[in-house]
């Protein structure tokens, strides 16, 4: 029996889903699924049972997302910090992950799972990758930019989340997607993760819709600003080149335009070459990891 696809929304849920779908809908939602142990304590069951119910809730939530047309979900399944928990709890979570994620994969669901992850680690790794690119002669130091860093993150294939939801009443990000959520709608909900309902998700989407125009404006302004800054840097570089060649920096507008165009075309070529090399390097690392753990 399919886990995600089984069960449809109730008539009332479907009706409300259709109403909410008339507004701007998120394409990507990230979850910090918090509160499994408090739930276990509240229901007087074993911790592992709390985590297991938490996982079942994830499958249910994915189904709601699919029904709502939200095709991308990212979850914080296990942070690097979580390794500090007792050995039995960590082992239990690992067992759960092994059993349950392989089953989820069979359902071909589009789910990003952040496992042994922290955002600061991801960002510093991206910085190291760019430094490696410069060292290898693939990149010029002037190629380093926010947009290149963005492409070096593990999430480079996904749009940034529109909504980040944390359950259990905790109001912090705990080192999760810090870079990617700068213009996301942050929703903190008191419900414990295993008790999450369709209506909690519905409320989070309503909050997103109420803030949509402000968020969109902030995103657009930020993108514009990034473009403007890059253009300013390029113009300064061209001015420097022309002066070095003994030409008048502000003289020939056509020459300046040609130089600017060449500059950005060459940068794009270097960046693409670097990103391809990075992908190969990562694939090689994963292959070696696979061989070592086999
Ligand atoms: C937070 O609750 C939850 C986790 C640390 C694990 C999240 C995992 C799942 C929901 C199951 C799916 C993932 C795996 C690894 C199979 P908590 O343990 O922090 O509970 P508390 O906040 O009440 O202490
Ligand atoms: Mg917790």
From TrEMBL:
UniProt keyword annotation of Membrane present: yes
Primary location: endoplasmic reticulum
Enzyme Commission number(s): 2.5.1.87
Entry-linked Gene3D superfamilies: Decaprenyl diphosphate synthase-like
Biological pathway: Lipid metabolism; Protein modification; protein glycosylation
Bilayer topology annotation: Peripheral membrane protein
Catalytic activity line of the entry: n isopentenyl diphosphate + (2E,6E)-farnesyl diphosphate = a di-trans,poly-cis-polyprenyl diphosphate + n diphosphate
Example GO BP: polyprenol biosynthetic process
Subcellular location per the Swiss-Prot or TrEMBL entry: Endoplasmic reticulum membrane
Cofactor or coenzyme needed: Mg(2+)
Keywords in alphabetical order: Endoplasmic reticulum, Lipid metabolism, Magnesium, Membrane, Metal-binding, Transferase
Pfam families, per database record: Prenyltransf
Complex formation: The active dehydrodolichyl diphosphate synthase complex is a heterotetramer composed of a dimer of heterodimer of DHDDS and NUS1. Interacts with NPC2.
Family indicated by similarity: Belongs to the UPP synthase family.
Protein name: ditrans,polycis-polyprenyl diphosphate synthase [(2E,6E)-farnesyldiphosphate specific]
